[in-house]
């Protein structure tokens, strides 16, 4: 028992992937969970009991409406997980169109500001308050041909470390999680694109990617969720301001 029974949790982008695993894992621990996503059909397939609303985290009006709905249902907030993110455009920087740069930064980085600023007044009233921001191994190593994504994810770490110091007196802990190769569709698409660039098969690309990790495997969304639950639980109360890699020791993407 992680002591998360009754914890009030808001997870962004919970309809699929890592966000869904996080929302479900908190709910299984007896937490009360609310989530949002762009994908209404995906939201509809979440387990009963998880609160949900369509919202684009890059849209401040939609985020305000999301917080109103979530707070009305939860009655307060103990945990914010800023999970939403998109891969953004692929290509050399001079080929990237400015609108795609803006959208990537808005969804991956500015969304975390949009949500944190509304969460903080409520988190201040919690006895075990925590924010977890999803960054990426790209936020530590860089990512050739995906500079907007890497820049946004690097920014997430700066936001996390600054907020952790700023909110320490309020008893709010703030950490970033850096996934690397996560099993799933998104990773498959990234590796397929890399395999094509290199002119090798998908299986060869997968072996190559694993050779740059210590565990020689993917991390699953559920394994990431487990680390996030621990961080947000009372057992994680000594950990703040950290950028924690949960990536099997990935050295390059
Ligand atoms: P994903 O591509 O599977 O998408 C998850 C959900 O985000 C989808 O349901 C989508 O509809 C939703 N979404 C997209 N834009 C949104 C928006 N503007 N507002 C609300 N919802 C939106 O993503 P994932 O792979 O589960 O990644 C989750 C987080 O982890 C992201 O921040 C991502 O950058 C990060 N990450 C993922 C990996 C990986 O390999 N999967 C690796 C490193 C970091």
Structural commentary:
The protein is of the alpha/beta class. It has 2 domains: 195 residues, Rossmann fold, CATH 3.40.50; 38 residues, no CATH class. A 7-stranded parallel β-sheet has the order 3-2-1-4-5-6-7, with helices on both faces. Helix 4 links the parallel strand 4 and strand 5. Helix 4 runs parallel beside helix 6 and helix 7 packs across helix 8. The longest helix has 26 residues. The protein binds nicotinamide-adenine-dinucleotide. Nicotinamide-adenine-dinucleotide binds next to helix 1, strand 2 and helix 7. Nicotinamide-adenine-dinucleotide (NAD) binds next to helix 1, strand 2 and helix 7. GO terms for molecular function: oxidoreductase activity, acting on the CH-OH group of donors, NAD or NADP as acceptor. This is 3-oxoacyl-[acyl-carrier-protein] reductase. It holds the Pfam family adh_short_C2. One of its GO terms (biological process) is fatty acid elongation.
Q: Cofactors and ligands present?
A: nicotinamide-adenine-dinucleotide
Return the CATH class of the largest domain. Answer: Alpha Beta
Structural class: alpha/beta
Q: Main beta sheet: strand number and arrangement?
A: 7 strands, parallel
* Beta-strand segment tally: 7
Percentage of helical residues?
Answer: 40-55%
What number of structural domains do the residues give? 2
Hey, roughly how much beta strand do the residues contain? 5-15%
The gross shape turns out to be globular
Provide the CATH superfamily of the largest domain.
Answer: NAD(P)-binding Rossmann-like Domain
Low-confidence stretches: none
Distance between the termini: 35 Å
CATH architecture of the largest domain: 3-Layer(aba) Sandwich
Give the strand order, joined by hyphens, for the main sheet.
3-2-1-4-5-6-7
Write the CATH fold name of the largest domain: Rossmann fold
């Amino acid at each position: 028992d992680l002591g998360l029974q009754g914890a009030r949790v808001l997870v962004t982008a919970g309809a699929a992937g890592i966000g869904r695993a996080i929302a479900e894992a908190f709910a299984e621990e007896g937490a009360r969970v609310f989530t949002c996503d762009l994908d209404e059909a995906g939201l509809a397939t979440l387990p009963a009991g998880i609160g949900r609303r369509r919202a684009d985290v890059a849209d401040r009006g939609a985020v305000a409406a999301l917080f109103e709905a979530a707070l009305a249902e939860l009655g307060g907030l103990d945990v914010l997980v800023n999970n939403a993110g998109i891969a953004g455009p692929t290509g050399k920087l001079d080929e990237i169109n400015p609108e795609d740069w803006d959208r990537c930064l808005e969804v991956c980085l500015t969304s975390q500001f949009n949500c944190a600023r509304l969460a903080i007044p409520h988190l201040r009233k919690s006895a075990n308050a925590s924010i977890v921001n999803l960054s990426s191994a790209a936020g530590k190593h860089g990512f050739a041909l995906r500079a907007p994504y890497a820049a946004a994810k690097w920014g997430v770490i700066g936001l996390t470390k600054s907020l952790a110091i700023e909110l320490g007196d309020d008893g709010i802990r703030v950490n970033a999680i850096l996934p690397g190769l996560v099993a799933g569709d998104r990773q498959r698409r990234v590796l397929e694109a890399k395999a094509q660039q290199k002119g090798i098969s998908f299986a060869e690309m997968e072996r190559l990617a694993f050779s740059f990790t210590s565990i020689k495997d993917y991390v699953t969304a559920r394994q990431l969720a487990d680390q996030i639950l621990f961080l947000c639980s009372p057992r994680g109360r000594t950990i703040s301001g950290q950028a924690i890699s949960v990536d099997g020791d990935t050295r390059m993407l």
